[in-house]
Design goal:
Blueprint: H1 7-28, E1 37-40, H2 46-55, E2 60-64, H3 67-76, E3 81-84, E4 97-103, H4 112-121, E5 123-134, H5 144-153, H6 168-177, E6 181-194, H7 197-201, H8 209-217, H9 219-234, E7 239-251
Length: 252
């Protein structure tokens, strides 16, 4: 699995969903002028942009382990302190931020509890720590049509249902086990209109994330069968797809 792709490639794959999700997530984080916030696992900067809009670039930091994403985030959000780092070892002092947030990241952390605990470390006491993950266990992520079709072609494929934090209970447990207080969770739905089947399908051909990896592993014949099955399922377009994420937050 790789996220060492360009920011543009990731945007075509997930950005069409992560941008509206980041806006809703930002609303729920109770951002206020004067706060300092960090975007952990920023990717090309969907949530970073929301933080900048609400707080100003000088009040925002962002980290990601992918060099290409760090470069893209820096280019898109001048003035933001963007560094290459993983969630489990943040390059900041204790109590550096009022808000720490991770959007579509916890389930990919090497150590989710440790990563969220590190987010809490750099957040001041009573500051807010939040995370959002698609409802993977409930098959309500943006990739659900693809995983549904893959399951028919390769019933043994694990998909993403078992990734950590991919359910309300799982995400809440990660935050609680990281030592956060008063953890609560909500659902954040996102609906995207795809103008054509090709616009929806093409980003899956670049090996981005578990879904892209699964498509690549099928080989040419398997991909052709998968595309045919998905076109029958979705039609030529336009069509709407709705995805649902769980967002959880707690106090450091």
């Amino acid at each position: 699995m790789t996220f060492e792709v360009t920011g543009g490639a990731y945007d075509r794959f997930m950005g069409r969903y992560s941008r509206p999700l980041a806006a809703g997530f930002g609303d729920w984080l109770e951002l206020a002028p004067g706060q300092r916030a960090i975007d952990v696992g920023c990717g090309p900067g969907a949530l970073t942009g929301v933080l900048v809009d609400r707080l100003g670039a000088g009040q925002v930091a962002a980290v990601d382990p992918s060099a290409s994403f760090v470069e893209a985030c820096r280019e898109r959000h001048p003035g933001v302190d963007v560094r290459r780092a993983g969630a489990e070892s943040l390059p900041y002092e204790d109590d550096s931020f009022d808000v720490a947030a991770a959007c579509l990241v916890v389930h990919f952390m090497t150590d989710p509890v440790g990563g969220v605990a590190e987010m809490a470390r750099v957040t001041r006491r009573d500051g807010l720590v939040g995370a959002a993950v698609w409802d993977l266990a409930g098959a309500r992520a943006p990739m659900w049509p693809l995983w549904e079709a893959v399951a028919r072609l390769q019933p043994e494929h694990p998909g993403e249902r078992e990734l950590p934090g991919g359910s309300r209970e799982g995400l809440v447990a990660i935050l609680e086990n990281a030592g956060l207080r008063g953890v609560e969770a909500v659902e954040l739905p996102v609906t995207v209109t795809h103008p054509s089947f090709e616009e929806w399908w093409e980003p899956y051909l670049h090996g981005v994330g578990p879904a892209g990896e699964a498509v690549a592993a099928l080989g040419p014949d398997g991909r052709a069968r998968l595309e045919e099955a998905l076109r029958r399922r979705l039609g030529d377009g336009p069509f709407d797809l709705t995805a649902v994420a769980y967002a959880a937050r707690g106090r450091a």
